[in-house]
Amino acid sequence: MKRTMNLGGQALSEVPPLQEHTGLRELYLHDNQLTGLPDWLGDFRELRILDLSHQPLGALPDSLGQLTSLEFLYVSDLAVRALPDSLGELGSLRYLGATDNNLPVVPESLGRLRELVELRLYGNQLTVLPDSYGELSSLRELHLDRNPLAGVPGTFDQLTELRVMSLRGTALTEFPVALSRLPRLRHLDLRANRITWLPDLGPDAFPVLEKLDLRWLDLPVVPEWVHALERRGCLVYRTAA
């Protein structure tokens, strides 16, 4: 039985009939010219990997939520304005890449993805994230660069498995204090934001941080905890005065 099918980069304008291959585990449809997906795609219940990236789809069907064995979903650069709420049903999902779509919002239902390890949402138009994302108990990497974010939810202090947080080039004006309490955070990228002041944090802040990027921030004063991180061996990148 065929387990992998790669139809990427073939200039397809529609998905060919694949109904006899519902036992597929990997399906690659990226870099085509698809403008829609058939509902029968939801019948591929054994799929582990689905790559739809880099084509003018415009919308994603609710039937994707039926792919309950899916572990890796690539839906970047599709000109979509929304992700279906049904993605919250993908209980086995470990990776979700939905970058460069100009999404104004993301579904609250994604907070139910307890197996999710990596979430990439950079290059969208997000101004807020749902509080429910603090419930992503397995999340290790969160990439939010190039979104006009007003802040991050206070619930993010519950992301106890998070190792990498990237917020480069967002619209943050306040330092995300909730992140300072994360016990496993190693890399924090805050480059090119509007933060002009760092709060005073206690000696327990960022207990295992290895890299803090503060370049291109207008920071007239750097508090003692930043120097303490440097003395501990954390790499702190700052723009020279």
TrEMBL record:
Q: Point out the coiled-coil segments of this chain.
A: none
Which SMART domains did the record assign?
Answer: LRR_BAC, LRR_TYP
Q: Gene3D superfamilies from the entry? A: Ribonuclease Inhibitor
Give a single Pfam family match. Answer: LRR_8
Q: Which residues form the Disease resistance R13L4/SHOC-2-like LRR domain?
A: 86-192
- Which InterPro entries does this chain map to? Leu-rich_rpt (IPR001611), Leu-rich_rpt_typical-subtyp (IPR003591), LRR_dom_sf (IPR032675), LRR_domain-containing (IPR050216), LRR_R13L4/SHOC2-like (IPR055414)
Listed transmembrane segments: none
Keywords on this record?
Leucine-rich repeat, Repeat
GO CC terms for this protein? cytoplasm
> What is the name of the protein in this document?
Leucine-rich repeat (LRR) protein
* Species, as recorded: Kribbella italica
